[in-house]
Amino acid sequence: MTDISTSTLTSGLGELIRSKRIDKQMTLPQASELSGIPEEMLSRIESGESTAPEFRSMLALATTLNIPIEEMTETYIELERSSESLFTVLKEAIPRLLPIPLIMKIATQLLTISQRETSEDSVERLYALATETQEIPRKLALFKVISQFTDDHSIRPTLAKSLLQSYLIERGDLRRLGDSYEYGRSIQYHVKFLPVDDQIVYYYKIGVHAYHLGKYEDCIQHCKKVLTLDYSEGTTKAEALLLSASSYFLLGLFDSAEKYVRLLKAFNFPWLNDQVDFLQAKIDSKKISNELAIVQIEKFLDKHPHKVVVMYDLLDLYLKQNDVNAIERLIKHEKDFIDFTSTNHPLLISEHAVYFSKKSEYYFTINNAKEGFHNLFKSIIMFISVDRHREASSNIGMLLSVMSRFPSALHSFEKEFHQVIEYLQNNNNKGGAFI
Predict the structure, then answer these.
(1) Has domain 171-288 been given CATH number 1.20.140.10?
(2) Which tens digits make up the pLDDT trace of 63-85?
(3) Fewer Cβ neighbours under 10 Å: the N or C end of the chain?
(4) Where do the structural domains in the chain lie, given as residue ranges?
(5) In 24-99, which residue ranges form alpha helices assigned H by DSSP?
(6) Distance CA 9, CA 5 (A)
């Protein structure tokens, strides 16, 4: 039965090559010379007598006869029944950027055949190939195939590894932060099958992800896992503590934030010290006085790596003090401290969005509605772009509260207003409640 199937498929491959050669009015010797394939071998391929022609030979013929590589590959893999040969096909196909469904078909067929041989070895070999693959969509496609196969066959450690790798790729798409976060959360059950170092990577990465989305309670829980698993006193542990301290602060739990700040002071990393001092100054502003906080935070304008966070904290403190002169000075010199062109990171985008929100509060306070709406819409749209729905919702609430005060000024922002309406409609259709 197998021989008949193989013969039929081989004939199909031979017929494809022969018909293309004839269409090009090319003789067998000419095709042999141009492709570098011996004439006798080429004749045997066309007649279906060569049961296992090498894939490289098929690629040479595809080039010679102008056969699309996709068509040649599809035909060839229907013939091939050796996992070793299919692995060779896959290695050739990936750098040629063949369509992703075809890449997945080859990989799936390779593992299906291997099921009758040594499936776990083939899975590990395919995992290594996926890890080495540089082109991201095809890399992700291979991990998806591995995940499906290992899930179906209960190969738990490799399933966990491939799911982690898929998540690390998915979270890099800044346009889908919310969706990729939910995907990351969905693989938590499998994390226990990972080596401890990989578990630490997972919980740290998803903790950062949660922080970027403003999911501070989630961030704290993920970082607690890092602190439980990581017995080192290295950078990852320090960053997990800093994320936790910052999350507690943003949740208004200042005593808990200060507890983590004290733990952070035991680490001696140059990049960390200023951030810890800055966070302590912010805690002092909440627990002691605005005046003390202003003096402390102003010092960070020259040394904080992300000065926009210093700017919006100062704006907030100046607003509380009703210090119009200080606010005007700060806004006048904002371009000395903030590079508005380099906001391509989700956290930086959200930090800039907070700054524009604070600016809008000031402009509405002094009845400059045009600047107020300009900054408020800018803030809302930036929050939406990085899936910060809670902050977007808060700013939309502010928008609704000031619309009635300045209806004429709003007419200049019809485009932005329709973007906000579209956002609300889309999220209401998904069952979201934002205001």
Answers:
(1) no
(2) 888 888 888 888 888 777 778 88
(3) N
(4) 171-288, 289-338, 342-435
(5) 28-35, 39-47, 55-65, 69-79, 83-93
(6) 6
